[in-house]
Amino acid sequence: MAAEAIYFVAVLGGVNNLAPSEAIVVFRGNQARIAAGYALARQGVAPLIMVSPASERQRRGWDRRYGLPENVGHLEETQARTTMENARQAARIIREEGLKSVTLVTSDYHMPRSLGLLKLFLWGQGVEIRPFKVRPAGVRPSGYRMFRMNPRCDIPSRAGQISMLTVSPFMSICLVMPALRNIATGSVSSFHIALAPAASFAPRYR
Predict the structure, then answer these.
(1) Are 170 and 111 part of one and the same domain?
(2) Which of 43, 48, 58, 82 fits a 20 to 30 Å CA distance from 67?
(3) pTM to 2 decimals?
(4) Does residue 2 surpass a pLDDT of 90?
């Protein structure tokens, strides 16, 4: 429980990593994330960018809007519909491309869950994941909200506000179980991390 609290504090309070990497991975959810990913590409952080998910038409539109440099290419990911699927599909592409370092871009409140899941799906692959947190305009985090876990545990429903330490056992279940099942069967379970900031709760974009 204490380790989980330290993890959340470390991720939420950590400084964005601007070190060069092999690819920028954006977990789509709002335009601020996409704009930040493209800004990093323009700064030369990585020669590849992946927005999960994004159609070819959407990528072309963002290329025009945000100005993707000619020397930066796309990694295509069109299937994800949840954060779990963002991480699973991104990890699959990272493995297929043989990448060893990526910059993960998502909202600050979304980073602990996203980073934890992507690390799980890339467990043992030797991939360094560098977090870059984005603060959505007008959002001020204030505490955490617990989600009730339904049978599939990947479509959270809102519940009352509760402290991070109180809900950390739920975090343990939703982090550890996918790893154990993945190791045992080679497949991926549908458990989902049960935490997100209350004031920063973002509606599902899928």
Answers:
(1) no
(2) 82
(3) 0.68
(4) no
